[in-house]
Design brief:
With about 190 residues, this protein is an alpha+beta fold. It contains 5 helices and 10 strands, in the order E-E-H-E-E-H-H-E-E-H-E-H-E-E-E.
Length: about 190
């Protein structure tokens, strides 16, 4: 399986509308755009007429049947599928500790998801925040946060006692609050 690095948004973003690509078509230069954006961008052009790519300005001939007949961009679609699948399967992964600390509202859903674990610092990090850790001296040990490592790092800690204890066992002391802890970093559930 590939590493948990994120699919860069710029690879799946239409350069015309600057949103995520929808019904992506590819030009001969291999740049991809939304079908609707291409229809709008080349509306003044006639079929079989020469046109320029909106990104690299390379010229190409519009298909006789219109831009709708341009080939589907399977590579971009695959990246979108990977990102969507990762977003669904990563629902149980914690937020990045650094991004959460810097978040104004401290809302988990608005913070980048951790995809890396720095063993040296015991920190859960997103792609952007883990980069400095990979280049620190002495070298930090940074691992991809796999589902197995994620599960290994999780433990239940009692808010009242502040430790893993018998009071959090099922049916015992229900008045105590239990929180989910990743090593030293507390994430409330």
């Amino acid at each position: 399986m590939a590493s948990r690095s994120e699919v860069p948004d710029d690879l799946i973003t239409c350069s015309v509308c600057l949103n995520g690509c929808v019904d992506t078509k590819t030009l001969p230069c291999h740049h991809g755009f939304c079908l609707k954006c291409l229809e709008t961008y080349y509306a003044a052009k006639q079929p079989d007429e020469m046109a320029l790519c909106a990104v690299c300005r390379r010229d190409f001939r519009l298909p006789a049947s219109g831009v709708r007949m341009l080939p589907h961009h399977f590579f971009i679609q695959r990246l979108i599928d990977i990102k969507n699948k990762r977003n669904q399967s990563d629902a149980n992964f914690p937020p990045c500790k650094v991004c959460l600390a810097e978040s104004i509202h401290k809302q988990r859903e608005n913070v980048a998801q951790a995809g890396w674990f720095c063993e040296t610092c015991s920190e859960l990090l997103c792609e952007a925040c883990c980069r400095p850790h990979k280049h620190m001296r002495p070298p930090h040990i940074v691992k991809a946060l796999t589902p197995e490592l994620n599960q290994h790092l999780r433990q239940r800690v009692c808010d009242t006692c502040g430790r893993v204890c018998g009071c959090i066992l099922p049916g015992m002391r229900p008045e105590y609050n239990v929180r989910l802890v990743y090593k030293k970093h507390i994430i409330h559930t």
